[in-house]
Amino acid sequence: MVFSASENDTIRIATEFSRNLTRGDVVLLDGDLGAGKSVFARAVIRALAEDSELDVPSPTFTLVQTYDSKAGEIYHFDLYRLKDPEEIFELGWEEALSGIVLVEWPERLGEHLGGYDAKKTKSVRFMLREDGTREIMIEEGME
What we know:
By secondary structure, the chain is an alpha/beta fold.
């Protein structure tokens, strides 16, 4: 578990985390609204793309955004607005699993949560504390 006292701390943690990501990795980002999931995802994408100024809009309305990187294609899913878990396949889920996948609101996958290589899954949980800081718990290999 690590602690973040600021957006810059979260960016630093995410940048360090991104160094070990490879094709086939699925990163599940879990936490309440405003807990830091999007900041973390944006920093991971920018680090992998090696472009600190890359425009990384939240995929809240499009549900998925894709990016190129030397490590492979990056797929950023925000499933907050997903109405039915089956819709994930219309968004290119199966193709995405060959790249690096970041998923905000992974519980919206329903029965498809876990339908990928458990050894390549990383869970990042964000908890907003009363003092405004965040606890970030990172677990790798969800067997």
